[in-house]
Amino acid sequence: MALRRAGGTQLRKRGFWVFTEYRYEHPAGAFRLGSRRFARARRAVDEGGAAVIGRADGRTLWWTGDAFYWADDEDGEQVALLAWDRRRRDSARIERLRKQRAHEGAAVEEAGGARRERVPPDVRTAVWFRDAGRCVECGAEDDLQFDHVIPLARGGGSASANVQLLCGDCNRLKSDSLA
Ligand SMILES: [Zn+2]
């Protein structure tokens, strides 16, 4: 089943008391719900399900979670599950990206300012994934640095093939052995 996020859909409340009307405005038009139908929909959504807001052009506008979706299907349970799965995957992905960015940002390039050359962001990301976020020598996950395998001062470049992840300790050991 294809579930598409209904971008630009807004819920507006009009009127008062039993005359209250809920308008779901979407780019192609609007659906109106009376207060009773709205209350039923709200309950279904609160219970983790999905509610039909309206139909247009052979598609159905659903409300579930905190979002609206277009689907060509009429099965509310499936809509609710797919939307829930999407939210779950999105938040897992965001959590992963947040961690990755924090780590990449924390990994400093070879200490010793003068010979420092910035490893381009795409190379940092490629190296980070290739080395699985760990020191290639000891597997440490902390104090990581982007190390030039062949130092820049000795003609090494900043392509991913010449960059690796090393922890601070391993990097210092390597520097000592090169000196
Ligand atoms: Zn190490």
Explain what the structure shows.
This protein is of the alpha+beta class and about 180 residues long. It has two domains: about 5-90, no CATH class; about 110-179, DNA Binding (I), subunit A. It has four helices and ten strands, in the order ββββαβββαβαββα. The strands form three sheets. A four-stranded antiparallel beta sheet has the order 1-7-6-5. It has a three-stranded antiparallel beta sheet with strand order 2-3-4. It has a three-stranded mixed beta sheet with strand order 8-9-10. A hairpin with a 2-residue loop joins strand 3 (about 20-25) and strand 4 (about 30-35). The termini are far apart. Zinc ion (ZN) binds near residues 137 and 167. The site of zinc ion has 8 residues, from strand 10 and helix 4.
What's a concise summary of this model?
The chain has 179 residues and is α+β, with helices and mostly antiparallel strands.
What is the strand and helix layout of this fold?
Elements (H helix, E strand, L loop, with lengths): L2 E3 L4 E5 L6 E6 L2 E6 H12 L3 E7 L2 E6 L2 E5 L4 H31 L1 E2 L11 H10 L13 E5 L14 E5 H11 L1
Bound molecules: zinc ion.
Number of helices: 4
Look at the structure and give the mean pLDDT.
85
Task: Give the overall shape.
Answer: rod-shaped
For the record, give the distance between the C-alpha atoms at the N and C termini, rounded to a whole number.
62 Å
User: Strand arrangement, largest sheet?
Assistant: 1-7-6-5
| String of helices and strands | EEEEHEEEHEHEEH
Category from helices, strands and their pairing: alpha+beta
Q: How many β-strand stretches?
A: 10
State which percent range the strand residues make up.
25-35%
Low-confidence stretches: 111-115
Rounded to an integer in angstroms, the radius of gyration calculated over CA atoms is: 27 Å
Largest sheet: 4 strands, antiparallel
Bound small molecules, which ones?
A: zinc ion
Helix content: 25-40%
The tally of domains stands at 2
